[in-house]
Amino acid sequence: MRIAICDNELFYVEDIMERIEKYEFHDTKPAIIDGFIQGTQLLDAFRIEPYDIVFLDIELGETLNGIELAKMMLDIKPNCIFVFITAYHYYLPESMWLGADLFIDKPIDYDLLDRELEHAFQVYKRLNRTVTFSTTEGKIHIKTNEIIYLETSYGKYKLKTTNHHYYGNLKTIKKARQQLLDYHFFPLNRSIIINFKHVKSFYFDYVVMSNDDMLPLTKRIRKEFREKYFDYVEKEM
């Protein structure tokens, strides 16, 4: 996990860095914690190797503010997690439009900082959760967010992800299949398990996935699908 802090006041950069270094992480600790006092410095470093979590001041005192800088970084890494630092609450609607719901007020409230850090870490874990599959290409670890859907047929399976299709023997994925169902996945029928994250749209009798595959939605499952999908969407907001 790579974390960056960017604020045009060095005091805040050092203060937040120190707090993160002292924080008791339950699982993975940050491998890198970098500090910046200029947005351009952060952007240059981000282009070389993106960060997972960025604590970002909105008023940087530069041509670009933190919101504009975040948009540029999201173009590079769409799942980057931002914690905005601000004393100017009129920026909040625009930052929330970016998908950010993590904020720290100035002056820093350390209890709030700890809560937002834990929240960001939980989001990071969810984004990077993996499931292991035995495939015809060997054993692979795939991030759940990259899985579009799993389809089984005649003792075989096909796993469609955002960048590849994997195949294998159905007997080898009993544990993986259950793990998917424990996360944000839903069984459309006995053969197909879809990732709610990759539902592009749905209609009366079919679901359109992010790769434009259309999957059948039967009358028997329609009500449950709608209820659980909207529950998922509400939790993600």
TrEMBL record:
Keywords: Phosphoprotein. The keyword Phosphoprotein applies. Residues 2-121 form the Response regulatory domain. GO terms for molecular function: DNA binding; phosphorelay response regulator activity. InterPro entries: CheY-like_superfamily (IPR011006), LytR-like (IPR046947), LytTR_DNA-bd_dom (IPR007492), Sig_transdc_resp-reg_receiver (IPR001789). It comes from the Bacteria. The modification 4-aspartylphosphate is found at D57. Pfam families: LytTR, Response_reg. PANTHER family: STAGE 0 SPORULATION PROTEIN A HOMOLOG (PTHR37299:SF1), TRANSCRIPTIONAL REGULATOR-RELATED (PTHR37299). This is Response regulatory domain-containing protein. It comes from Massilimicrobiota timonensis.
